[in-house]
Amino acid sequence: MGTNVQTITQQVSLIASETTWIEGAAIQQLKKTAELSSMVRVAGMPDLHPGRGYPIGAAFYTRDKIYPALVGNDIGCGMSLWQSSLKASKINLDKFAKKFDRVETPLDESWSEVINRRKGEKGITNKAFDLSLGTIGGGNHFAEFQAIDQVYDAEALATLGLDKKQLQLLVHSGSRGLGQSILVAHIRQFNHQGLLSGSEACQHYMQQHDEAVRWAELNRELIARRFLEAARSEGKMVLDVNHNLVTAKALDNQAGYLHRKGATPSDMGYVIIPGSRGDYTYLVKPLPSDKSLYSLAHGAGRKWKRGDCQGRLSHKYKKDDLVKTALGSRVICGNKELLYDEAPQAYKKCESVVADMADAGLLEVVARLRPVLTFKTHGDCS
Predict the structure, then answer these.
(1) Active site residues
(2) Which site among 34, 163, 179, 198 is 20 to 30 Å from 238 CA-CA?
């Protein structure tokens, strides 16, 4: 376990083997966050990469302050896994891909009753962003049908009610414009100085934050339901895990706040760790540990910055080359820049990221899932 939990400074640790490549700028950002007032500990995951001022793929523990900027603009971003009634062996990719022509437009009136009912059940009062509910958004967000490819713990798989014969659906999205509006308003008033716990401003932010988390969860549910409907399939949710949020958490018998930015909780049961659209996804059983601030990687992690990818790849790959992957899966993405930005080559191998955490004693692998059809967008997205 030793070398896979690297001590960067007294406050900063990195969960990664010495052979795992991590960009120097990400390490610098990680160290910089440790200098924030009230910061106790910072932990980087093996998918760590630079963000806008703060690193992505990290957890941050504070004693009596919260920092909305550490959570970022996509409050409640996370992953949900649904099991469909479709048989994985029966899928004809050409026919299957044609079913998803209208899965990114705003939901029509036929969804109004479901949206209003579920908003009420989840205590969501915000109406300003209703048109975004059920939409994926841009960046690295996606909906992906997957097949269970390898089973390492059949008992755990059965506990979750997962059937290897069924096609699975993984949804990655968050709070869309709602989370963005909350962060922008906060930064405009308070900049990056953070909020003292118990203050009126902190309570106000946390109320907005908690609603955005619930909104993001509902968004993923509606995305999954519309994809299942388009595929003429039934389905049930197996997991839903947020990886951008702040929660109250005791550490070393003292109260504090755990911020996660692209870090999957390891203290809430089974989680899913996806690779790039041309790589495997891993279902894992976390082994909670304060070494990683009770967190795990939320995915494979970027190697290349967005915007650099087309220049790196366009001389080797045409647009049409990137809609089919080495694993035999298909990609639906009508945005050329996004197609290159999210190419498998731009990401680390998920297997190595998962192996780093397994070797550090932080998880056990339950199953491996292979992509079948990844949906990004038919055209430009925001």
Answers:
(1) 298
(2) 179
Residue pointed to by tokens 């030793």 = 2
Residue 300 pLDDT level (bands cut at 50, 70, 90) = confident
pLDDT band at 308 (very low <50, low <70, confident <90, very high): low
Alpha carbon distance 174, 213 (integer Å): 8
3-state helix, strand, coil in the chain (%, to 5): 35, 30, 35
For 68-149, where are the alpha helices, taking DSSP H only? 68-71, 93-97, 112-122
Cα dihedral 261/266/272/278 (nearest 10): 50
Instruction: Judge whether 292 and 266 are in contact, CB under 8 Å.
Output: yes
CA-based nearest residue to 271, from 5, 80, 74: 80
For residue 90, how many other CB atoms are within 10 A of its CB?
A: 9
Q: Residue 209's CB: how many other CB atoms inside 10 A?
A: 24
Q: How far is CA 130 from CA 22, 92, 119, 228, 335, in A?
A: 38, 34, 10, 20, 24
Residue 250 half-sphere exposure toward CB, CA atoms < 13 A: 3
Q: How far is CA 299 from the centre of its chain?
A: 7
| Nearest of 171, 187, 191, 170 to residue 179 by alpha carbon | 187
Q: For residues 300 and 322, give the distance between their C-alpha atoms in angstroms, rounded to a whole number.
A: 18
- 353 and 47 in contact (C-beta within 8 Å)? yes
How big is the CA angle at 162 (ends 159 and 167), to the nearest 5 degrees? 170
Q: How does DSSP assign 255-301, residue by residue?
A: EEEEEEESEEESSSS-EEE---TTS-EEEEEE---GGGTTEEESSS-
Encode 112-130: b = buried (16+ Cβ within 10 Å), e = exposed. eeebeebbeeeebebeebb
* Whether pLDDT at 260 is above 70: yes
Average of per-residue pLDDT across 59-64:
97
Angstrom distance (rounded) from CA 144 to CA 280: 11
Instruction: Report helix, strand or coil for 19.
Output: coil
Collapsed DSSP state (helix, strand, coil) of residue 165: coil
Cβ-Cβ contacts under 8 Å for 157 (sequence gap 6 or more): 148, 151, 164, 283, 366, 367
Integer Cα distance of 34 and 37 in angstroms: 8
